Amino acid sequence: MAKDSEHVKLKLDNLIIFKEDYEYVIPLSDISVIVLEGQQTTITTRLLAAITEYNISLVICDHTHSPCGIYHALNGHSRASKMLQSQINWNEELKGIVWKKIVSFKIENQIDLLCHLEQEIAAIDKLINYKKELLDYDTSNREGHAAKVYFNTMFGKNFTRGDEDSPINAGLNYGYAILRAYIARLVVGYGLQPMVGIFHKSEYNQFNLVDDLIEPFRPFIDGWVFLNMKESEFITYEHRRELLSLINLRANYMGANYTLGVIMEKFVISFVNLMKTAELTNFANPIISSFEGVKK
After folding, report:
1. What is the pTM of this model?
2. From CA 240, how far away is CA 175, in angstroms rounded?
3. Would you put residue 254 in left (φ > 0), alpha (ψ -120 to 50) or beta?
4. Is residue 113 predicted with pLDDT exceeding 80?
5. Which residues pair with 27 in a beta bridge?
6. CB of 294 within 8 A of CB of 224?
């Protein structure tokens, strides 16, 4: 994470950070996401080119330290054109089934998190019913109904996601942006076109598919923010640094223990295979209550 009055450049496939009187050297092969927060930070075009070669996502923040842009490889796969044609031809019925499954995963993780945090039983029961009522493409918007109950239970009846002055929303938005950048690099790396989604289809959104695939992972951020920022008056540098580090914490997934970053990669791989084979068996949900980031 680079802050004010810093210069970052490339040297022998390493990221070089000049900060005050120090020089930090990090191999690009060890990096998945870079966050630039400083308004005075400079970066070389050689480094930008290398970032795309190594399929690293670069997140740019504004003067409030809020992520406002993502830079990533335009084409990270040798068969990207073939994959794009495949995406365009994805079966509509299958997309509806897969979106229902993704929403099911998200609500399941919300339920698991509320149970783990010992929240209201009545709210948990409502989410369980919403999950049972899911339809293909979630045409009855159970996701939206579940989100309202879930967030009001977690952060209070007066909480709204649209409150720009809320430190909770600042934490959620920052964490979601990091996950979004990470999934974007995976989507591109496996040859998918991020703007072609299965549910999200906005002509103004370059990350429709990313916004589809991120949904089951949002509660991982929610749980950390609940435990670490619920009483905070503002989001701090330490909060942002720890949110960035969540992708390195571990959780259980398909019977094994991995970092969140590895789980997201396996999730994207299983999604690619699912859209090829229409086989749902290996499309699985990570277990959020096992996540190191929500340990009480």
Report:
1. 0.88
2. 8
3. left
4. yes
5. 14
6. yes
